[in-house]
């Protein structure tokens, strides 16, 4: 048994002498890769960034002359951008069914598709039969 052990040790020494120049760089490369990987993991745990919060700064009034001119501009702007509540109503009130000039489908006025029709393209129908007589098709999602 002692003889087998000596042969085994001799074989290991021969193997080491033959491949020493290849084994040492391979072990070094594996160690460097492992250390770099672990360092990257540790660094990423410390670099978890907080979410970005965007805050709107408060408006500051600088002088009385500029605030008067800004106030007059703001009143002009607000009067120019006021929306007429009657113009937001896209369908006439007496329509039982509505359609678009650009489509052959008809909808109930409360349907989401009917609300998307531009006011200038709205076509009004008193009844379903009248709309069908004009060649329109009932929308399956609105009219069942």
Write a structural description.
It is built from five helices and four strands, in the order H-H-H-E-E-H-E-H-E. By secondary structure, it is α+β, with helices and mostly antiparallel strands. Mean pLDDT is 76; it is low at 63-71 and 73-90. The protein folds into two domains: 1-47; 85-138, no CATH class. A four-stranded mixed sheet has the order 3-1-2-4.
Order of H and E elements: HHHEEHEHE
- Give the uncertain stretches in residue-range form: 63-71, 73-90
Total discrete domains: 2
Give me the oligomer status. Answer: single chain
Radius of gyration: 41 Å
Report the count of strand segments: 4
Question: What overall geometry do the principal axes of the alpha carbons give?
Answer: elongated
Average pLDDT over all residues: 76
Taking the alpha carbons of the first and last residues, their distance comes to: 95 Å
**Biggest sheet strand line-up:** 3-1-2-4
How many helical elements?
Answer: 5
Major sheet, described briefly? 4 strands, mixed
Tell me the structural class: alpha+beta
Percent helix range: 40-55%
